[in-house]
Amino acid sequence: MEAKAVKNKNNVKGDTNICGICMPTVGEAGRTGDWSEMKPEIDQEKCTPAVKGKAACFLCWLYCPEGVVSMTVPVTIDLDYCKGCGICAEECPPKAIRMVRKERAHE
Amino acid sequence: MSDVRIITGNEAAALAVTLCEPQVLAAYPITPQTKIAELLSEYTEKGILKAEYVRVESEHSALSVLIAASTAGARTFTATCSNGLLYMHEQLHWAAGSRLPIVMCCVNRGVGAPWSIFNDQQDAMSQRDTGWIQLYCRDNQEIIDTVIQAYRIAEEVYVPVMVCYDGFILSHTMMPVEVPKGEEVKGFLPPYRPHTFLDPERPCTINPVFFPWRRENAEGVLCDGYMEMRRKLQNGLERAKGVIAETSREYAERFGRDCGGLIWTHRTEDAEFIMTGMGSIAAETTLAADLLREEGVRAGVVGIRSYRPFPKEALAQAMGGAKLIMVLEKCLSYGYEGGVASDLKAALYGTGVDAPVVGVIAGLGGRDVRIDDMLTAARESLEGLKSGQCGNRTLWLNCHGEE
Hints:
The complex is a heterodimer of chains A (107) and B (403). Chain A has a two-stranded antiparallel sheet. Chain A has three helices and three strands; from the N terminus they run ββαααβ. With 107 residues, chain A is largely without helices or strands. Chain A has a domain at 32-101: Alpha-Beta Plaits. Residues 1-7 of chain A have low confidence and may be disordered. Chain B is an alpha/beta fold and 403 residues long. Helices cover 39% and strands 19% of the residues of chain B. In chain B, strands 3-2-4-5-7-6-15 form a seven-stranded mixed sheet, sandwiched between helices. Chain B has a six-stranded mixed sheet with strand order 12-14-13-16-17-18, sandwiched between helices. A two-stranded antiparallel ribbon of chain B has the order 1-8. Chain B has two domains: 3-188, Rossmann fold (3-Layer(aba) Sandwich), CATH 3.40.50.970; 264-396, 3-Layer(aba) Sandwich (Rossmann fold). Strand 1 of chain A pairs antiparallel with strand 9 (205-206) of chain B, so a sheet runs across the interface.
């Protein structure tokens, strides 16, 4: 689909798409998960909410700079947008998160 | 009845701004611009100008405030010069890249070091490639007329405009100026309509990171990348050529005064020797041209009003009959030559105008540019042309030191 002018309330003629605009929505900056070399894997047998069967800990959710960790039981991570920084694995008290190298198509 | 006042260039600028009714102003004082900031502050305080005057701690902040205000949909104004303009440099690029029709007066002054408060045009010249339109004024009447036109041009092509005029020579010199009526200016200048603006009901991020490639947004629409945006800015400035000329023409129709559009000419119809430049120095060369005419030299002047966009087609046409061209300029691209001379030679390349172009560096840091010195440089160059020894070269006018 070709770029189309954003609807302009001010009745401006011509191309109004002349400065950079980004709307607040999931994935506006593209699938940033593509940037990562490593991905987190959660061992649900060690992860506190899963072990206790209720909302608990969630330090991974708190520390994640990308907001891709869910505050749910069990905890899930959206790998489409995880940049693989490893902060969740570093902060996890029971060491339930492990960073593993992603397999690349060309490898 | 017309309202003619005897005022300085800075007062002319402040009156013009007031007539255009900007909603947000921000400026930091710097000689010789300070009087504009003072007057606008006074007009705002007295309620003559219904605007928000934001006091800032620097020029960088002044333009940052205007970028925000213009993005929110306000008409804006600032003024600066010299090192203050250089301190704005980053934000100059940002304003142009955001396509915000901000209008600024640059009261041309030399740049330190060594420290100078006096006039030359190195400040604006050094900001040539920031994507702003640059218009130069000949006299105080042109300041008032050009500021009013600047808003219309900026808001038509969505490119910010720098209205440049010479410090002290115009800013502090009193001349009779006809001040247009408010309702006439309103008729000429429609309200500002932003292309994109901050709207709480439609939240967005303006100018986030752009990638080298074009990419789809979250709705699957393929959007412009950085390079496409920059190309659009270039197109905006190219389109401005026609808009500047048309705006000037319509202004002349309504107000009876013609600034010339992109360029103005003086006795060029049959001219073989053409002098050119920007601002007050170009206006003064008309006196030299008249004196040379008395000596039998077919001399004329082409004044460059719009330096960016550079009016290459108009210049090539106006200089079509020239056998010798002399550029008088108050600025220099160090390690090469005067910027206007470079641009002019490039503009004439391949057009069939093959007259030698003599660059004259003059008036740096306020050094007096005398008509006699202009005439001496002109006569020497004309002699050189006769003896075949006048190529493209650069002279320093009224300056001691080595060749």
